[in-house]
Write a structure and sequence with these properties.
The chain is mainly α. It contains ten helices and three strands. The chain has a three-stranded antiparallel sheet with strand order 1-3-2. A hairpin with a 2-residue loop joins strand 2 and strand 3.
Length: 225
């Protein structure tokens, strides 16, 4: 297990362990194929195996992890077909968030988005892929927060549990394409043009995600678009 986990206090352990594993998935610190060992995780977290096992079982039910046996728990590999389905859903749902964000964004909100993009460019130039993935995720979730749509955020959170490891796996290959479509989203929001913001985030997900598509096509030996 190569990723770091903090030692926990003994209050509300189940929810805390679940949140920490979710963050590791969404931020791409856990990669496709990574194996999770309950005892090792419990030791690193300073807790018993019970809250770790409960959190893992919950994530298996949510299809964010796979469990072939009690000793073989892994981050799943994304199939091409599943990715295309998730991509279509993201275009619709994140487009809705961007559209609403364009109507509600304040100057401070826009500055926040711009800061995330600027920081992401710096991390990419420095070759810090983990930080870049984290900032990419922050940008997408910031749109939902600005839109004031907490229920939608919960839905997207579960989607990103599956997308985070995949994005991390190809982020270096995608390079600046992974963030070059973010500035048009900000421009549309500055103009309060909801339709343009929705279109721009869709372009980010589809065109900015071409490295993901190529990666999965190579694995599947297919050519689906």
């Amino acid at each position: 297990m190569t990723y770091e986990l903090p030692t926990l206090e003994h209050d509300n352990l189940g929810s805390t362990v679940y949140r920490l594993i979710c963050e590791a998935l969404i931020q791409g610190r856990l990669k496709p194929g990574d194996r999770l060992r309950i005892r090792d995780m419990a030791d690193k977290l300073g807790t018993s195996v019970t809250p770790v096992r409960d959190a893992i079982l919950r994530l298996v039910q949510e299809q964010a992890l796979t469990m072939k046996s009690a000793r073989d728990i892994r981050v799943p590999f994304m199939t091409l077909e599943r990715y295309l389905e998730i991509r279509a859903i993201r275009v619709k749902l994140e487009g809705l968030a961007a559209e609403e964000a364009a109507r509600r964004a304040t100057a401070e909100d826009i500055a926040r988005l711009q800061t995330i993009v600027d920081m992401n460019r710096q991390t990419m130039k420095a070759g810090d892929i983990e930080a870049g993935c984290n900032l990419n995720q922050q940008f997408h979730f910031a749109l939902v927060e600005i839109a004031g749509m907490p229920f939608l955020k919960g839905i997207l959170y579960r989607i990103w549990l599956q997308m985070g490891p995949l994005i991390s796996a190809v982020y270096a290959e995608g390079g600046m394409d992974m963030i070059d479509y973010h500035p048009p989203v900000i421009t549309a929001i500055q103009r309060q043009d909801g339709a343009a913001a929705a279109t721009a985030i869709g372009e980010d997900i589809v065109s900015g995600g071409q490295a993901i598509l190529r990666h999965l096509q190579a694995a599947a030996g297919g050519t689906q678009q």
